[in-house]
Write a structure and sequence with these properties.
single chain; alpha+beta; four-stranded mixed sheet
Length: 341
Amino acid sequence: MSATHPPAALLLDWYARQKRTLPWRGEADPYRIWLSEVMLQQTTVAAVAPRYARFLARFPDVAALAAAQWEDVAAEWAGLGYYARARNLHAAARAVAAAGGFPRHAEGLRALPGIGAYTAAAIAAIAYGEPLVPADGNVERVAARLFALTQPLPGAKAELARLAQGFMAQPAAAAAPGDFAQALFDLGATICTPKNPTCALCPWMAGCAARQQGIAAELPRKAPKRARGLLHGTHFLLRDAMGRVGVRSRPASGLFGGMLELPGTPWRDSPWPEAEAMAHAPLAGVNWRRVEGEARHQLTHRDLVLQLYAGQVRGLPEHLAPLSAERDLPSAMRKLLRLGG
């Protein structure tokens, strides 16, 4: 054990007393662990908890998810964002079902669609007891402070993962890798928080190098962010005499791949003048009315800026389907729907 690694047993004792009650904990089902980890990527625990339960009610195991149609999976994922995750989840479920079960090691898990190093390590550690430390943002933050690593992210990621994995040299951590990983998650989420860490309550307070140097709140450091870009689009809200809204599926690849949308233009760096946008209207001869305002939606590195035209017809054209429920739309399209009243 490195002299700079505090005792894993201290953290495990703290976790036994203070661990959070979460719906995906308490069992070693790789499907449920995998689903929770995918849902939690860039989404909060509070937002995921009810959606996790709802998803499981509809797709209770990997066989059910594998057998489902993509449209049903997409509808259940709507509103969670990052829709490539749902497409990979569906593809991986089919691969697992075809293979007769999940791989039991991180290396095999990483071969599945959409499963990277972190998710593979989390499933392997929690479901199968493989001695790995999955390094998410919470774990990176804890490690940066414990070892006072001042190199900024994202360049520091590999070193932080190496330092975190060093805990597995301790028998206490290696004997309970699933609990140890979740203890690190909880420590980062509740004590070693991004702002105002409550160091006085931390089981590793005495061994934290950043606390000793008075720089805990400054870590981890991050490289300067690039300016956020904008993507512009124009969409068309077409209602029929019954008030039904016409929607279509987006292309399978790209942003919101395979999800439903209000028909419209592609998304591009420059705004769409009305004359150009109207070439993409889903139906000619409609008295399209420009809706005041715009819908904005934040993506990972850019913002969507969407304008809307509304129109009404007696019946929807064959190439558009009536929207069944608002929840079937991704968040950006819901914002447009609300903009149109």
